[in-house]
Amino acid sequence: MGEPSSSTSTAVTIPDAVEVADGDEPPSSTPQPTPRHPVWADVPDADWNDWHWQSQHAVRHPRQILDLIPFTEAEQHAIESLQAQYKLAIPPYYFSLIDRFDPLDPIRLQSVPSPLEMTGAEGEEDPLDEDKDSPVPGLTHRYPDRALLVTTHVCTMYCRFCTRKRATMKRGGWDSVSRSDQRMVEYVRDHPEIHDVIVSGGDPLTLPLEKLAYFVESLSAIPHLDVIRIGTRVPVTLPQRLEDNDLLDILESSGKIWIQTHFNHPREVTSECRRACDRLRMRGLPINNHAVLLKGVNDSLATQRALCRALLRIKVRPYYLFHCDPVTGAGHFRTPVWKGIEIIEGLRGHISGLGVPTYVVDAPRGGGKIPLMPNYLLSATNDSVVLRNYEGMIVNYHPTGEPPLKQEVVETQGVSALLEGQAEVLIPEGNPRLSRRRARGIANGLSNGHGPQGPSPKKSPGRSGNGRAGGAASNGNGQGHTPAL
In this chain, where does the modification N6-(pyridoxal phosphate)lysine occur (predicted)? Predict the structure, then answer.
C-alpha cells in the first residue's frame, strides 16, 4: 500500500452493467410502460388498467400457461404436478414482464413453476417456526414489541419461493371477519408491550375492503400501537389495484400505516409501479422494500445495484435483503451467505446509504432476523480501533478523541503499526478518489499535484519512509497525515 499512482485507475467491471471509475453509476433511465404479451395485445386500455380485469384474467391453470410460453416436456410435467402442491396465479400485467423466449428469465423464475422445485435440498413447511410462536390462530408473537398477523391466504401472484406456502394453500373464502380475526386484534389490544404489527398473509390488499377496514380501524384505535405495516406485493404484481381511491382512503385514514413491498429485480420497476408508489406516498404512506436474494434472479452485484437505484428513483427505500428461507420447493433459489456479503460490499460506498439494504438471515427455529455485513472493524486496542472503508483504506480511529497512551516503540508494520500509533492510514495503490484529488491539484497549478490539506501534524514515532506502515500511511504526498475524506 502506498500513495496513489498518477495514472488513471482501472475500475472493476461488473458483468452486464456499465461501470465507471470509483463506483459512479451512469445516468438513470425512466421506466417505460410495460409491453404486453401478444395474447393480450388487443385488450382495450380501460380493461388492461382495471385491476378487476387483471385479477379475473390471471393465469391460474397449467393449460393456460402452456399456451403462453415455450416449455420442455419436463417443465410441462412439473407445472401440472406442482399445481396440487402450490397455487398458481400470475396477472397478465406481471406475466407480460417475462421474456417468454428465455427459460432463465428472472421474472419467469419467480412466478412460473419449475422442475427444480421437485429436486434439490429438501425444505420445510414452516422454516421459521411461525406456528410455534402463535398464541392465537394467525398471529405470531416472536419479538418483544412486534406481532405478525396473517389475515388472508390469497395473493395476486404466488411467488415460487414464498416462505408461507402452507398458509396460501388453504382454500375457501375468508371474506367476512371471523372469530380468529377478532382474537388476533384482541391479543394485540391486551398486550401493551406490542408497539408494531405487520399485517400480512397472503396479501392483505387482496382482502375485501370491509375486512381490510376492520383490521385498519381496529388496530389503529389501540393506543399503544405506534406502527402498522402492510406487507404487500401488490405495487409490484398488480399496481392497478392502487388506482382504487376507496382502498387508499382506508389506508390513509389510520395515520400509522407503513407499506412493506417486495421488488426483487429492476425490471419489476415499471412506469405502472412508479405511479402506484406515487399514489401511496401522496397519501402519506412511506414505502420500504423487502427483497429476497435469489439464485438466477438477483444474485449479482450488477442486478442489485440496478434494483436499489431503481427503487430510490421511485422513492422506495431498500430496507432488507433476505437470505432465501429453506422452504419446501425453494432449494434451487438459495445462495451461499458469502454472495450476500459480496453484494453488500459492492453497494456500501458505491451508492447512497439510503439505497443499501440490511442483509439478514431469518434464523431457523424462530431465531428472528440476524444482520450480516462485511467486516469493517479490523482490530482494536483500549484507545483506538482500526477500520476499513469501502475503498480498502485502513485507518486508525480514536473513538474518544483522547490521545493514545504512550508506548515503547516497537518495530512493526501494517495494521499493527496503526494500533501502535506509528501511522494513521494505509491507502490502497491506485485509489481513484485520491487520483482525482491529484488531478485537481495539477489543474490548479500546485507543484505536488495535491490540493491544500492544511498543516501537517507531527509525525508519529514510527519509521516513516522505510516501506513500513509509517511510509505507506501518507496522503500521497509524503506528509504522513490522514487526508481529508
Answer: 369
CB-CB contact of 31 with 269 (8 Å): yes
Domain ranges of the chain: 38-118, 131-372, 377-472
Could you give the CA distance from residue 395 to residue 414 in angstroms, rounded to a whole number? Answer: 11
Strand residue runs (E) in 262-352: 287-293, 317-323
Looking at 3.20.20.70, 3.40.47.10, 3.40.50.620, 3.40.50.300, the CATH number of the domain 131-372 comes to 3.20.20.70
Q: Indicate left, alpha or beta for 471 from its phi (over 0: left) and psi (-120 to 50: alpha).
A: alpha
Vertex 463: Cα angle to 460 and 466 (nearest 5): 140
Q: Which residues are catalytic?
A: 142-143, 146, 155, 159, 162, 164, 325, 362, 369
- Indicate the SS3 state at residue 88: coil
d(CA 182, CA 215): 9
Q: Are 238 and 55 in contact (CB under 8 A)?
A: yes
Q: How far is CA 456 from CA 359, 441, 460, 471, 483, in A?
A: 40, 17, 11, 15, 10
How many angstroms separate the CA atoms of 256 and 459, rounded? 56
Q: Tally the residues of the chain.
A: 485
Cα(153)–Cα(133) distance, integer angstroms: 19
List, run by run, the mean pLDDT of 10-residue segments along the chain (485 residues).
41 45 47 83 96 97 90 85 86 97 96 86 76 92 96 93 75 75 97 98 95 98 98 98 98 98 98 97 98 98 98 98 92 95 96 96 88 94 90 90 75 85 86 87 67 40 37 38 39
User: Residue 53 corresponds to which cell in the numbers above?
Assistant: 380485469
Nearest to 287 by CA among 277, 296, 279: 277
Radius of gyration of the chain (CA): 27
Task: Count the Cβ atoms, other than its own, within 10 Å of residue 238.
Answer: 26
Q: Is the peptide bond before 202 cis (omega within 30 degrees of 0)?
A: yes
pLDDT of residue 81: 84
